[in-house]
Fold this sequence. Notes:
By secondary structure, this protein is an all-alpha fold. Helices cover 79% and strands 0% of the residues. The chain is built from 13 helices and no strands.
Amino acid sequence: xxxxxxxxxxxxxxxxxxxxxxxxxxxxxxxxxxxxxxxxxxxxxxxxxxxxxxxxxxxxxxxxxxxxxxxxxxxxxxxxxxxxxxxxxxxxxxxxxxxxxxxxxxxxxxxxxxxxxxxxxxxxxxxxxxxxxxxxxxxxxxxxxxxxxxxxxxxxxxxxxxxxxxxxxxxxxxxxxxxxxxxxxxxxxxxxxxxxxxxxxxxxxxxxxxxxxxxxxxxxxxxxxxxxxxxxxxxxxxxxxxxxxxxxxxxxxxxxxxxxxxxxxxxxxxxxxxxxxxxxxxxxxxxxxxxxxxxxxxxxxxxxxxxxxxxxxxxxxxxxxx
Length: 322
């Protein structure tokens, strides 16, 4: 049987395509975007002499371009993740990259495998789309995790600024200047929008909805209520910072408690596949006596469906809402 060698070729091509996406991104947009947890990209652009209005226009274009392209077939699956990851690639560029990677994967499969042309084409398209989706999803998760970790410190910084007499918009500007990315640039966009006349409450609400962060929604609601009814905003935000920190600690605790169940589900789903590969590598003719049986292929599909259901059920069981 040629399955083990071809399966290894599929895996190698997928990993190579995934690394190629990252390489193209770094070459096109520079290392600072990839490492935006260490660099405030907005301030870096301003330091290079780019005008404040041009910086705002560029950042807003990058932040909004993906959600505006949800009507494109198949791209709707990627748009939300690309929005949260703040991918600088435009939707058209991402689609072109998917097509390019699919073509490269097809060439690799044509050289390394003997599968039918239709099957190679289908697998190539799946590899091209899947690699880009996995890359964007990874970027989105990393960026959102960093923002959740930075938000309590940013709110407390605004509290200290308010207590020394600064207006709220100046507190937002201080966060934009002092906090690293990704949160620093996000608050920098809010500060620039407010400088050009937009309501700070509306800007915060828009950012919260775009990123889908519950804690940012709390911040936007708190600021909006204070603007309408008055009150000590510093005390309100101090209490909010404590709530956000408590939620963050609870999330971490839940994640630690459910980690064993999550890895158990992954192990139970992956172990049969590892055993299959091991058996076929050790004895390539192991299934030759039963491969022609009428129930062999349906049984393979049944096992695959059950393994997939196992992953889904374990994910549902460990997805505890807080």
